[in-house]
Amino acid sequence: MTGHVAATVAVLIWASYPVATRAGVTGAFAAFDLITLRFGVGAVLFLPFLLVRFRGISPSAWLRGVPLALLQGIGMATLVICGLQFAPAAHAAALVPGVSPAWVALLGFVFYGKRPPRRVVAGSALCVAGAALLAWWNTAERNAAVLAGDAMFLAASALGAAYVLGLRDWRVGPVQAAAIVSVYSAFAVVPWGLGASSSLWTAEAADFWWQVLWQGLLIGCVAFVALNHAISRLGPERSTALVAFVPVLTALLGMLFLKEIPSLPEFAALAAVSAGVAICSAGFRPADQPSSMPQQNVRHADFPGPGSGP
Questions:
Q1: Helix 100-112 vs helix 144-166: angle between axes, to the nearest 10 degrees?
Q2: pTM score over 0.70
């Protein structure tokens, strides 16, 4: 799979995932049910790979997997799924992958001393303006629940950005990265989820398997591998070029399947975020991009990238 194909697959899944998850947490499932599926199914899929490759994975990779699992795994996934209990799917798409370039630029400057190009600063400013417009609209409407959901999405975006920056020093192949993070997260989440009172045991079969598909296979495995593969081939900057389409695609899917019709200010905010991501993607220097380096030896560029999808 080429880097561009991998990035496209990840973006299509990111655009659809908030809609599927929003339907789940406002329907037959509690948030923690979906978190359990997210990592439980992913761990089942990835564990055989880790067992086969166990001796080939360095001790440092196992250790680095702990903080990365807290960022991209447990932390980000929990915030996104819990936030979708309160806020529309389009908000998740705008504030998680959409605002991530601004987070990556900021964190890259603070922790790595990487000064972003002017276009990245301008694009990040548009992303922040879009997020601020959403916050203003919800405040004006006195919608505290949606504000709480949006705050969770912004926190998840920051964790995802930190994950992307952390990959720059993690010399493990993309599948190994996804596998270690998924399995570590499952060890922390699944025993608690299965031991608690859960609607997973009583849900309709169609609803259950639909969420297994989205939480476990597509977002928990396919999108994760695609993201890491795209980053390793293109660098985080080029792998996120199509992320500009995610907020708009999610809004359209939310209108179609959830009957969530954005207001005019919300549409303007989504447009600002999409434009900001597009400008950020065009603002990265070709010199920052890894060429045809082997996957195991790629040093990832400092930014940008949506740490992952919602």
A1: 50
A2: yes
